[in-house]
């Protein structure tokens, strides 16, 4: 799993530092002309409850108003023994894109959601056999998240765009406990911040 | 481009250290210094207390996400001055997640006397036992208070899939040698041994280790009701604390020939 993460990180780093290596097609209407399964961006994200770092990529449609990404996240062992590995499917909507001139753009609003899977024997999707039915109601492996944010970026031609994005998000069960205990927990306790870079090719 | 990325990462690291709005996973094992190693820190405080022959302890039941009741219970306990230390009998959390441990501990930290905990079945979910160890310490531990020996242990057999080694009776037997180093013992574990979440193959052996080990009292939670029984007819009292939603905790008086259990409502 470490190797997959490293590879994904290298792809993003390579795209960021040596754009010509990632040149797939110079057709400006690439998203209409390439097969649907060819990814249109790579992303590298810091935090956001889906890894200390998560890397991957995905597809963008309707002139960058919707991104769908698959990210692989990693948390190194910190005060415990084991690293944590997380796979995340993430959808982001970008309703507004403002042209700032000189090829710079600002997307002031984003909103989206994640569904993530924490890997390993400690986490289960369905209740394991050792429990009577309905012993616990929430899967320990599957988490849903929601976020809002924005991005600032520049288009280069190749790579087509490099965007830095930021997000403020919540995770389902943490939000649930906050909603049950609004006097003892503040919204700030529940919110978490993510930063990332997206490279379109 | 490379420079911008470096600035981003350095900035993120600084921001992270300064106010920590970043979370890497709901299960990240990442606590501040004041949230760590709490069993050892509380035992050090207990060691400095006057160790009277007869003393009182408070016992809080399952807290899970019942924070209002827990907070009120903490306030009610702080109004008393006759309790040496407090015990929470497990299920600090609902889902064994990092922030839940943090939020519950934030309430327990308001208790003026030292507080000890034991791991519950909910606290085992995901990597909860790693989180418990990082925040509190070992799952099994013991200490002396005067002539009374306290033994805390993980007995959440079902969470481990009933391996036959949870609770660890070998360890418990070594901790309860009844060799004159203590006059009486108190055992604290989340699941009562008569409950179906306790390994049925170990139930009778558990009772025997307690009986031979000089235990007078076995404290539990898990069932969310108060009970005070001697299910093995051997003189050892098995007590369960109500869940915090019941708005009560126990005050237990322990001394020579004395175990008195009172339910205190708030």
Question: Keywords, please?
Answer:
heterodimer; A: 201 residues; alpha+beta; Porin; 8-stranded antiparallel β-barrel; globular; B: 266 residues; alpha/beta; Purple Acid Phosphatase, chain A, domain 2; 6-stranded mixed sheet; 5-stranded mixed sheet
Can you walk through the features of this model?
The complex is a heterodimer of chains A (about 200) and B (about 270). By secondary structure, chain A is of the alpha+beta class. Chain A has one domain (about 1-200): Porin (Beta Barrel). Chain A is about 15% helix and about 45% strand. Chain A contains four helices and nine strands, in the order ααββββββββααβ. Chain A has helices at about 1-15, 30-35, 170-180, 185-190; strands at about 40-45, 55-60, 65-75, 85-95, 100, 105-120, 140-155, 160-170, 190-200. Chain A has an eight-stranded antiparallel β-barrel with strand order 1-2-3-4-6-7-8-9. Chain A is globular and about 60 Å long. Chain A starts with a helix and ends with a strand. Chain B has about 270 residues and is α/β, with parallel strands linked by helices. Chain B has a single domain, classed as Metallo-dependent phosphatases (Purple Acid Phosphatase, chain A, domain 2, 4-Layer Sandwich), CATH 3.60.21. Helices cover about 30% and strands about 20% of the residues of chain B. Chain B has seven helices and eleven strands. Chain B has helices at about 1-20, 40-45, 65-80, 100-110, 130-135, 170-175, 205-210, and strands at about 55-60, 85-90, 115, 140-145, 150-155, 185-190, 215-220, 225-230, 235-240, 250-255, 260-265. In chain B, the strands form two sheets. A six-stranded mixed beta sheet of chain B has the order 4-5-6-7-9-8, with helices on both faces. A five-stranded mixed beta sheet of chain B has the order 3-2-1-10-11. Chain B is globular, with a radius of gyration of 20 Å. The model of chain B has no long low-confidence stretch (mean pLDDT about 95). At the A-B interface, β8, α3 and β9 of A face α1, α3, α4 and α5 of B.
